[in-house]
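Summary of Year 1 activities. Much of the first year was spent building the evaluation harness for sequence design. The harness presents a backbone, in tokenized form, and records the residue chosen at every position. We chose the following record to illustrate the format because it has been used consistently in internal testing since the harness was completed.
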């Protein structure tokens, strides 16, 4: 995890795009509302509250689909709603989008079988699998690949050319369980014999990759480590992004953020969900839902990509 390569040219961005699998920049990050936007985007760990122990949401005949906070809530709803509607119709029951502020909170819901299906970050999956709470179902294939990278980005006008140039600066992390948004930059620091507290001037947690990118674009942060899929999708939708930020480092390849189920889900429900997702690209309505996400199709997972 400490290996990284320098990216010679980077891309950069402006205000937001409706993201497919992975990007939607918050509206309202303009002008005189800077202080409010910063407050909305940057969430301190010590302000978060876990669900009370033992609390389980009421049973229902609904299909509950949890989506990790890779995107802000607005971006998640726009990107995933067509797929959620499709799965609900195919299963003959209402499908409900379940969101939580942190990756850990969604992992907790999966562990307690409160949600039937989860679209989560790679780091969150590794943590949940180690705890024996969740299992792989399928993974998305994007641009012919089932891997992704971490991009360390800075504002276009920044003098930074490599990760070490961010010493003493403000750095935006995504979530403590985020592979690209926290664990990867942490591994870079550890390889240098540093910790965030000793290397950066200040760190913040944004709790979504689009908010991390917005923090860099708006000058709230001097750098951030983000999901390459989120970043690249955004650049394709809005080339101005490539003129507003720069990528200065890339990680090695990691297993793409997977689709998971609770370990205790019934075999019948697990098989039905898997068949629906694997066959999505063969259905006209399913293809439309995939297009909104920016996904070619869902495929069988390769556990070795996640260290299992």
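For this record, the design step produced the sequence shown next.
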């Amino acid at each position: 995890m400490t290996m990284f390569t320098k990216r010679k040219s980077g891309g950069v961005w402006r205000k937001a795009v409706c993201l497919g699998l992975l990007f939607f920049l918050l509206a309202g990050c303009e002008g005189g509302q800077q202080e409010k936007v910063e407050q909305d985007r940057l969430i301190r760990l010590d302000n978060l509250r876990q669900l009370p122990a033992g609390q389980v949401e009421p049973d229902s005949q609904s299909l509950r689909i949890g989506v990790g906070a890779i995107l802000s809530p607005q971006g998640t709803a726009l990107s995933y709603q067509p797929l959620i509607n499709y799965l609900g119709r195919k299963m003959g029951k209402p499908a409900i989008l379940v969101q939580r502020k942190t990756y850990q909170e969604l992992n907790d819901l999966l562990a307690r079988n409160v949600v039937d299906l989860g679209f989560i970050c790679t780091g969150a999956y590794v943590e949940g699998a180690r705890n024996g709470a969740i299992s792989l179902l399928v993974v998305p294939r994007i641009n012919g690949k089932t891997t992704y990278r971490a991009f360390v980005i800075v504002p276009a006008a920044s003098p930074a050319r490599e990760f070490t140039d961010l010493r003493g600066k403000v750095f935006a992390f995504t979530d403590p369980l985020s592979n690209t948004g926290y664990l990867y930059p942490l591994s870079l620091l550890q390889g240098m014999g540093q910790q965030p507290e000793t290397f950066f001037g200040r760190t913040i947690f944004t709790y979504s990759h689009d908010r991390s990118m917005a923090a860099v674009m708006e000058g709230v942060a001097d750098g951030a480590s983000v999901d390459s899929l989120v970043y690249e999708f955004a650049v394709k939708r809005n080339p101005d992004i490539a003129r507003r930020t720069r990528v200065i480092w890339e990680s090695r390849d990691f297993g793409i953020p997977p689709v998971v189920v609770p370990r205790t889900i019934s075999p019948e429900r697990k098989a039905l969900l898997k068949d629906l997702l694997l066959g999505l690209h063969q259905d006209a309505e399913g293809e439309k839902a995939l297009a909104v996400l920016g996904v070619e199709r869902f495929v069988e997972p390769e556990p070795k990509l996640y260290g299992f």
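The chain has two domains: 4-22+148-254, 63-145+255-306. Quantitative recovery figures across the full test set are reported in Table 2.
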